[in-house]
Write a sequence for this structure.
């Protein structure tokens, strides 16, 4: 057994020659290309978090319907997640009641950047029929910055999916 | 079963409220009635609300099967509480205090309910609401005592597509020893918004009290308006309302059965029941122009006629669902793992359901067979009564079980889907010709309307003054379901909460007002 060689290797390290840093210009160029490719391939998936800010539950019925076997939201790379910490997109329904606005803000804050907010249904868009009441703040954008509006009372599952697919395409670039 | 409380109410002078006169008791008579309630099981408390002057209770005389409204003037901001005799009154009394500022003297629970200290005003329904001051206090939960107890707070935001509400579980290990529900997060000020509006405008709010029951709430509201001004919707409108009501029931029951099974990890049921639910919603779009049929029912009739090809769309959706139901039911029955989760879980005893007068699926799964569709209306001068109720001719069959567990609530829903399918086939074969609406005279009056939604009996009371809504109150069935969910969880494991909750499927928005 070459015990002497093994001991020397342990003491002196391998004979492999060290190398300097990779050429910076090439690294930067590669990074840009990889990012674009990753965005194109992996960006076609968004994790959705729903938050009911005081809706009548009509919008919730249609959000549920986006997942049924006929609409199958997940085939587009869109899926609902349980925690805002896992989410890219916050779907807000309801006219944002005063009793819930703090929870809405905290949910948004818990989401990692980059993030988007979608107002689903007339209430979240502008308060709907509840606009101006003492108990509501009239719209999702009173509390969080809104990127996309999906109107309707309630919007149908096809409409909701169309809106989210537009967001997906824009995100994938 | 002495009937003493009912006798006190009936002896008091009545004000004209159609179709059931409202008896106005003196504070002394009301206090005597409240005291007699404890020994009078025939009076079920359906709702308790107020206006600026009076507190109103709606009872159901369960022997005569007759609704019995009763009121008492509020004296020095107070009225005698009903909660010592009827525990379901506690949430109503807390709501009355939060909205109108009337104190329930002797009430069992005086904590705030839907006012979380975050509105612009306090007592928004009072004649002069006071601007709210100060910062919201943390909610006060019932005290707990004992060893090895831990609390699990859940919500108001939940990990799914669900309405907002807070659940405070007190557990011993895995077992829940108490669940306390805190709601009010969806409070939108419905009644303030409805006040002062013409009935056709106010109907849009009734339609959005609980979106899944939009048809049933719209019907109950429309009937209250029609009763108040003493007109009857045309026969064709009543008939189409009955069609929409059963469609809403079928769609919701299909969705619920699938969702309950999914909470026991049986995804096949979610997929198949979800498919049939979607077909019913599309039939709603084809027949009445809206998937949920929102705003299709208006005071005085219906806003949309049955579209060309609509009946065919409804019947084919029904046929597909009914063709697969027996196979799905067999799968459910034979699936040992599923049945193990369902049977004996979340039990509500028949005695408790009777005490709370819970209606709908929750009531019928625990032996209380009340169904507002079989409630006979007293005939009125204008004939706004029995003749206008097409379902009465079809001899409704009401399924009733005694077990009161998740399984029983699933089976009631399955049976009701079949029964509603039968009703729909008969109704669609006999749609009468005629007008869709009747003009509403711009008068004054008071009325009560009722409809059996998929959750249970929905009641609307309102007073019109010069053609505008002067006061109103919508009573969703969930008021009497939520406290029973708290009771049902006792002794169950925390992990079974989603299953129990889904089997009740109470509305949050419907009680948050």
């Amino acid at each position: 057994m070459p015990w002497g060689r093994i001991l020397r290797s342990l003491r002196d390290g391998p004979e492999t020659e060290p190398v300097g840093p990779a050429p910076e210009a090439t690294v930067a160029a590669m990074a840009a290309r990889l990012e674009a490719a990753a965005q194109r391939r992996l960006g076609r998936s968004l994790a959705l978090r729903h938050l009911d800010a005081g809706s009548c539950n009509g919008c919730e019925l249609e959000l549920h319907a986006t997942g049924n076997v006929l609409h199958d939201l997940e085939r587009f790379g869109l899926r609902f997640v349980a925690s805002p910490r896992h989410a890219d997109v916050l779907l807000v329904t309801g006219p944002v009641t005063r009793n819930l606005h703090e929870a809405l803000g905290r949910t948004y804050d818990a989401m990692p950047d980059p993030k988007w907010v979608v107002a689903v249904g007339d209430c979240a868009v502008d308060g709907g029929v509840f606009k101006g009441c003492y108990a509501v703040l009239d719209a999702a954008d009173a509390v969080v910055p809104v990127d996309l509006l999906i109107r309707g009372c309630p919007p149908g599952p096809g409409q909701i999916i169309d809106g989210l697919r537009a967001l997906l395409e824009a995100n994938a670039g | 079963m002495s009937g003493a409380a009912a006798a006190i109410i009936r002896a008091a002078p009545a004000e004209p409220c159609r179709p059931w006169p409202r008896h106005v008791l003196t504070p002394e008579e009301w206090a005597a009635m409240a005291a007699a309630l404890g020994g009078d099981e025939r009076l079920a408390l359906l709702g308790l609300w107020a206006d600026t002057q009076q507190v109103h209770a709606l009872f159901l005389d369960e022997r005569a099967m007759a609704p019995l409204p009763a009121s008492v003037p509020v004296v020095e901001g107070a009225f005698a509480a009903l909660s010592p005799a009827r525990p379901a009154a506690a949430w109503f009394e807390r709501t009355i205090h939060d909205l109108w500022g009337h104190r329930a003297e002797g009430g069992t629970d005086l904590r705030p309910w839907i006012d979380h200290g975050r509105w612009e005003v306090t007592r928004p329904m009072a004649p002069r609401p006071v601007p709210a001051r100060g910062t919201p206090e943390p909610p006060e939960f019932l005290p707990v005592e004992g060893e090895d107890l831990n609390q699990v707070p859940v919500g108001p935001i939940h990990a799914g597509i669900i309405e907002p509400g807070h659940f405070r579980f007190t557990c011993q290990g895995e077992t829940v020893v108490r669940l306390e529900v805190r709601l009010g997060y969806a409070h939108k000020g419905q009644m303030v918004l409805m006040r002062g509006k013409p009935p056709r405008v106010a109907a849009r709010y009734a339609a959005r009290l609980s979106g899944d029951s939009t048809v049933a709430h719209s019907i109950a509201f429309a009937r209250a308006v029609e009763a108040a001004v003493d007109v009857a919707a045309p026969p064709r409108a009543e008939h189409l309302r009955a069609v929409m009501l059963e469609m809403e029931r079928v769609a919701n029951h299909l969705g619920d059965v699938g969702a309950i099974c999914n909470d026991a990890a049986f995804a096949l049921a979610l997929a198949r029941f979800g498919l049939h639910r979607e077909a019913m919603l599309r039939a709603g779009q084809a027949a009445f122009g809206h998937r949920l049929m929102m705003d299709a029912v208006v005071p005085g009739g219906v806003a949309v006629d049955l579209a060309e090809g609509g009946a065919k769309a409804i019947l084919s959706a029904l046929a597909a669902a009914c063709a697969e139901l027996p196979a799905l039911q067999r799968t459910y029955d034979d699936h040992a793992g599923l049945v193990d989760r369902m049977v004996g879980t979340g039990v509500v005893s028949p005695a408790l359901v009777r005490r709370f007068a819970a209606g709908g699926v929750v009531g019928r799964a625990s032996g209380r067979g009340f169904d507002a569709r079989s409630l006979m209306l007293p005939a009125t001068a204008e004939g706004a009564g029995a003749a206008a109720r097409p379902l009465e001719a079809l001899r409704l069959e009401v399924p009733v079980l005694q077990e009161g567990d998740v399984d029983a609530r699933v089976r009631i829903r399955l049976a009701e889907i079949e029964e509603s399918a039968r009703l729909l086939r008969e109704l669609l074969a006999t749609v009468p010709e005629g007008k869709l609406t009747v003009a509403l005279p711009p008068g004054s009056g008071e009325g009560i309307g009722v409809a059996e939604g998929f959750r249970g009996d929905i009641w609307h009371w309102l007073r019109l003054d010069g053609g505008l809504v002067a006061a109103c109150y919508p009573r969703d069935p969930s008021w009497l379901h939520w406290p029973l969910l708290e009771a049902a969880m006792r002794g169950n494991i925390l992990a079974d909460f989603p299953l129990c909750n889904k089997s009740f499927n109470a509305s949050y928005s419907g009680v948050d007002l």
User: Anything to note?
Assistant: Chain B has 16 helices and 17 strands. The longest strand of chain B covers residues 457-465.
